[in-house]
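Supplementary Text 2. Reproducibility record for the structural model of the 305-residue chain.

All settings were left at their defaults, and a single model was retained for analysis rather than an ensemble. We include the record here because the model underlies the residue-level annotations in Supplementary Table 4.
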Amino acid sequence: MILFHHHHHHLLLFLLCSLPLLTLAIPTTWTLLNLARTCTPDASSCLYLFNLDQNPNNNSPYSLDDYTTCYFPVYPFSSLPANQTDFNSVSCLHTDRFSINGGYNSELKFWTLVITDVEKGEHAFFGYTDDELSNGEREGVVPKNGKVLTTKKKRTEEEGEWSGGGKEKEEYLVRSRRGKRKVRSREENEDDGGNGKTWQILGLSRVQNSSDDTTKVGFKIKDSDGLTAHCSLTLSGSNNDISWFGKVCKGFKISWGYKPDTDGGVMTVCYPQNGTAAWFGWDGISYQTEFGDSLRRGVHEIGCA
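Retained model, structure tokens:
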């Protein structure tokens, strides 16, 4: 077995050396910018937000395809607070193009984020200390670069060892194989959470009343079986940027986070009875009262409560 490995490496080197020089381009890197994590005071949920530049050396203004804003909530699975909770194969709210894994090492107080571009079959690793992430809530974490590795490999475990990432990387590769999801086209921008169920928010409206400093929010939740629940919530605060958590309506728990970079709102709908949840996003929400219908979003089993 050791012999085979030994030869295997020589063969690889030989193959690499016999390629024309042109194809040995500088290894690609992605840059992760503006990573911020905002958690509720009791750490019952955290909202992660970042920008990913997949072509940091290209200054052309036409490379928007390579620039993504991604945000997603994380809920604790166990007794650990959300800011110490690992997450697997999470999607960004607006697109299924990426799958994100986060692993927390409590001894080192260190986070590893692995971002996979499912369409391209590539992934990169980024590491952050706890301090960086909590400061990042205020000032946006320093940009980090991650070397891009190919995900689509027949011998996944071997690639994990070979690229020198050790245990973390191997575990991730094994998990990413298990969690292969079918990817839908970006135009559709809808996923089925792997269980075929979707929810949709219909007719979201918001009335802000500064005289008593409240906000009234109304909407319907419609599931793919055609059932609807009407929700009408009264919240304290009348600013555009209020966030709120765990408001109960017809057996659902509804949370809302404000996203300053796009003047956006992220709604999380959780159904504690079976621990499923879905996320919905709206941009440009200031001074609006009618937000209309959301896209249909996949319902994911995340154990929210």
